Here is the input.
Amino acid sequence: MNYLTTITSYTILKESVRKNDFNEKNLSSFISGLEIMKKGNRLTKVLFDIRVNNLFKTSTNDENYYFLSGLIIGDELLGIKKEKIDSIIIYGAEQISKLYFTALNYLNVINEIISVPYEKVGYIEALGQYKIYKCNN
Here is the structure.
């Protein structure tokens, strides 16, 4: 289970967030989360802001979800910057790939981003599994 799922399912924040389609309004919230992490804030310090936004109705639950996504993905990707990785391949479900692609571009943490179209994800997974099988037999 990933960090985002754990926070949105098993903490007090579950009442403050709702996953919905990624759109322009949610993009702004996502970028706000990225920006907060880019400024060097600690994730644990800003998680409470989501609950406050919900209690004072300054953000919708959808906006809170994408703000939280921006915080978590930003925290993760800023760690990559420290590793000095030159390129990265993004593949997976369309929505999560779009979030990572957006974050990588916004944070400018990597030189080359290769995005695999969602239609090819199954093929790539099968190819990878086959290569693992061949290595073990």
